[in-house]
Fold:
Amino acid sequence: MQAKITPATLAALPNPVLLSYTGTTHIVAYVDSQTGVPIDQTVSEQVVVNVAAGAQTLSLIPVLTLDFHVTPASMNYLASKAKTAGELLTLITVIVPIALVVIGVVLLVIAILRRHKPAATPAAARAAADGAPEPQPESSRLDTGPPQ
Structure:
């Protein structure tokens, strides 16, 4: 709603006139869903000067209007960056873990194939199995008892 400036409204203005500013900004951004890289952006900003006249605020004129757009060359560059970043994310989150699992499985198979068979049965175990008494090892301790 636009208020009309009438001679009566102008007469009601204080001296000095108090100004206020109202700013509005509209941002439209198209962002790559995988990487979050903004591909295309449009920014529109407008600042309007206002004056308080009695109980109402009157919008006078825009004092600043800006419109920014991404150039087609910048859009192509950003799309290329998003594609490269997306490929790297896929490599890190999908390909590398799969490759590490495959390497782990191959190493596990190699470890199983190269494990050593148990050593041959010791002589003591063979003797016990045959029913013969187990040979006693000779003691290498010094005899500290009284002489015999």
Notes: The mean pLDDT is 83. The two ends are 128 Å apart (CA to CA). The helical segments are 7-11, 72-114, 123-130. Residues 11-116 form one domain.
